[in-house]
Design brief:
alpha/beta, Purple Acid Phosphatase, chain A, domain 2, two-stranded antiparallel ribbon, globular
């Protein structure tokens, strides 16, 4: 969900498998130009909305669910603060970060199993 910083980092990830991505605020200009700001993908029978910056914390879950109608899950990043919450029937997920936790208490990522997201803490 953005902040690959360079096209080479994204390409390295793609060597491991399919990667759907949106651009982040830290991405180099060429990478930003080549990636959308938001995207809807389908995986494992889920419609998933992707965006880098979820906007202000106040009202975020409802705002993201409304921005991606028909999505069962909306994933965002930017703040690095892990979150799994519901807005109506839509899961709102911020995986945090496995590399740069910033203000988050721990390094984390998110996995989705059978439509159910969960945070995984790495330390």
């Amino acid at each position: 969900m953005g902040d690959f910083t360079s096209a080479s980092a994204l390409e390295e990830m793609r060597r491991f498998g399919s990667v759907e991505a949106v651009h982040g605020n830290m991405d180099e200009p060429a990478l930003r130009a080549g990636l959308p700001a938001w995207l809807v993908v389908e995986a494992e029978n889920l419609r998933i909305g992707l965006v880098h910056d979820g906007g202000p914390a106040a009202g975020r879950p409802g705002r993201l669910a409304a921005a991606f109608p028909g999505c069962e899950l909306v994933a965002y990043g930017h703040s690095h603060m892990p979150e799994v919450t519901r807005a109506g029937t839509t899961w709102i997920v911020n995986p945090g970060s496995p590399t740069n936790r910033r203000r988050a208490p721990r390094h984390s990522l998110a996995v989705v199993r059978q439509g159910q997201p969960e945070l995984v803490y790495l330390d």
